[in-house]
Amino acid sequence: MKQITDNIYYVGVNDRNKTLFEGLWPLPNGVSYNAYLVVDEKVALIDTVEVDFFMPFLENIREVLGDRPIDYVVVNHMEPDHSGSLALIRKYYPKVQVIGNKKTFDMLRGFYQLEEGLVEVKNGDSIALGARSLNFVLTPMVHWPETMVTLCPAASPQGASILFSGDAFGCFGALNGAIIDEKMNCDGFWSEMERYYSNIVGKYGTPVQMALKKLAGVKIDYICATHGPVWHQYIDKVMALYDRLSKYEAAPGLVICYGTMYGNTERAAEVIARAASEAGVKNIVMHNVSKSHHSYIIRDVFRYKGLIVGAPTYNTGLYHEMDVLLSELSQKDIKGRLFGWFGSYGWASKAVAEISRWNGEKLHYEAVGEPVEIKQSLTPETFAQCEALGRAMAAALSEE
């Protein structure tokens, strides 16, 4: 039994077997699917778990409740890793009422054909459980249209106030025994929270800012997200991280991403990195787009202000993995980056023009320096141009 605070219990599960979250994002340390019980005169289950883990989930619930029924299940978010067990919960607890908003119910019918025993809530509505109550705050597009968070105010002046935040403030990584941040070493979670945000939520910075404004001034002692630790000791740090990421603010560093077939484009990337370093840039991260999973590249583009990309021409177009990365970055709608680019070709020049087109039509980043086009391999002239590109980025970052 994992008690968080008075009458609040953790009943989630760990998934250490899945390799890709949503079939896209690597999970080297697994992931947790978090759910919670509020036990009062009435019992509320906050979110469920992926259906493959229903039986251990049910065992966790029964460890807390025994044979006592569940009165409500709150659906903060309808993605199946959180709502997947709803139909089975209804089979084991046939009288349970499902709490959600209008958009939740549209999805409930589509995913699980659930149409009865539904309690619709609007922004600001409350439901009393006894000494405690549940207050609902709609947070659309963080990061689906139906998302909401549930506040559970303290039952007494000395009690704890809980925010059940859905996917907001979550991160990748299974929980290794401890549930609450103050009882574990959280060092590994901060980078995974940045990667989780940038990969999953990243496009929706404006809705995240709106949600943060709705929560401003609210007493929160615990943040109970649907992935990762329960935040208590580090609430201010977690909130600040989400505020920074959702504003697309970045540190004065440089990400250099390159594609290479025979090493010539990679050598150009090394020249650019060395010149930027000699010009004063300390934070430089380099990624081979065919080796680094794009999940980590996207995280680093969220972290740092400068971005330089380069790739060869391939089949009279842009090298495939670079084309994919630029498409992914355009979908994230990351704002305010400084951008430089370079390319190479053996017999048909296309890469530099294609990267330029991506920036002009989709990315809309501030161009820095002069693009470098390399025919076959570096020459003294193109070597110097690569150095100039690195120095130009360093100067732009220094001005920022």
Helix and strand topology:
Blueprint: E1 2-5, E2 8-10, E3 13-15, E4 20-21, E5 25-26, E6 31-33, E7 36-39, E8 43-46, H1 54-65, E9 72-74, H2 80-83, H3 86-92, E10 97-100, H4 102-112, E11 118-120, E12 126-128, E13 133-138, E14 148-152, E15 162-166, H5 187-201, H6 205-215, E16 222-225, H7 235-246, E17 251-258, H8 264-278, E18 284-288, H9 294-303, E19 304-314, E20 317-318, H10 320-332, E21 338-345, H11 351-363, E22 366-367, E23 372-375, H12 380-399
Helix pairs in contact: 5-9, 6-7, 8-12, 10-11
Question: How would you describe what is shown here?
Answer:
It is a single chain. The protein is an alpha/beta fold and 400 residues long. It has helices at 54-65, 80-83, 86-92, 102-112, 187-201, 205-215, 235-246, 264-278, 294-303, 320-332, 351-363, 380-399, and strands at residues 2-5, 8-10, 13-15, 20-21, 25-26, 31-33, 36-39, 43-46, 72-74, 97-100, 118-120, 126-128, 133-138, 148-152, 162-166, 222-225, 251-258, 284-288, 304-314, 317-318, 338-345, 366-367, 372-375. The strands form five sheets. It has a seven-stranded mixed beta sheet.
